[in-house]
Amino acid sequence: MKDICCVGHITRDKIVTPRKTVYMAGGTAFYMAYGINHLPHDIAFQLVTKTGPESLDEVARMRQKGIEVQCFESPHSVYFENRYGLDSNRRTQRVLAKAAPFTMAEMQSLEAKVFHLGSLLADDFPPEVVRFLSTKGRISIDVQGYLREVRGENVYHVDWKDKREILSCTDILKLNEHEMAVIANSKNPRKVALQLAELGVKEVIITLGSYGSLIYADNRFYEIPAYKPREVVDVTGCGDTYSAGYLYMRSLGADYAESGRFAAAMCTSKLEHNGPYDGDYATVVARAKTL
Fold first, then answer.
1. Contact predicate 253/3, CB 8 Å
2. Contact residues for 88 (Cβ-Cβ < 8 A; gap 6+)
3. Pick the CATH number of 2-288 from 3.40.1190.20, 3.90.950.20, 3.40.1280.10, 3.40.630.30
4. Judging by DSSP bridges, how do beta strands 213-217 and 203-207 pair with one another?
5. 8 A C-beta contact, residue 99 and residue 76
6. Angle at alpha carbon of residue 272, lines to 267 and 273, rounded to 5°
7. Which N-terminal stretch is annotated as signal sequence (predicted)?
8. Which entry of 61, 128, 186, 273 is 20 to 30 Å from 111 by CA?
9. Residue 141 and residue 7: Cα distance in Å, rounded?
10. Closest CA to 5 of 80, 128, 102, 123
């Protein structure tokens, strides 16, 4: 039995910023796995992914780093192009290749207290897969992929048709300030959190970029500060890093506010360099106590 099982595709990413262009692996699965692997190994973690042949070397590298990975075959890996302008909170995306969705058969043997579903595109996790996993453990979802409709190679944000069905069996939901406008047609994070709670979500996490984040759970709001980075180098994977820190601390028994502050501080460490979080746990804990 794992404490956390992250299910999601490892991607190939082309990251374009005003300063440079970087090619690397990515996706929720990638950032979550490396993030948790760089924290003290006080919880049991497993990554379940599905990739094309072009990403098998990355899976091997993750295993060499000590990450437990179960990998299913797909004709292709997801291939994203992420472009950031001067405002690092905004990006445009293209999808240059898609991976096969996860299936019920692939989920049968999994056992975990929390399943974090790292959706990248709307059809990654059919509703029946989410329902099935919810009978095995708590469901945590990063909403981003459910809102991505691919037309040609371009990505458009749209609300998703199975929202009510999926949210009714979702315990923890993370979304950002742009996604909340799509999912709830509102720019008021408190209003959005209440709407999502009415649909059955137990813990709503809304990240607000440089303005911090908001958590709603047990009929109470928790305002989490943003910690100022020394330098903003790469924002790709920050939301996934937040989820890694939050779920890690919640698995250890931390409360909502403590988990949120740790997650936010962990995000700041990730912001300061390219690639997944590779920081020091003690530094994150110290930074989380500064505000």
1. no
2. 17, 232, 235
3. 3.40.1190.20
4. antiparallel
5. yes
6. 110
7. none
8. 61
9. 10
10. 102
**Torsion, Cα of 180, 185, 187, 190 (10° steps):** -70
The closest alpha carbon to 171, from 141, 143, 142, belongs to 141
Nearest residue to 222 via CA among 251, 262, 253: 262
Q: Are strands 2-8 and 45-51 parallel, antiparallel or unpaired?
A: parallel
CA within 13 Å, CB half, 102: 30
* Residue written as token pair 């137990």: 202
Residue-wise pLDDT tens digits, 128-154 = 999 999 999 999 999 988 888 877 778
Are 130 and 139 within 8 A, CB to CB? yes
Q: What does the domain layout of the chain look like in residue ranges?
A: 2-288
CA dihedral sign of residues 181, 183, 189, 195:
positive
Give the model confidence (pLDDT) of 186-234 as tens digits: 889 999 999 999 999 999 999 988 788 999 999 999 999 988 877 777 7
Phi first, then psi, for residue 153 (nearest 5°) are: -110, -5
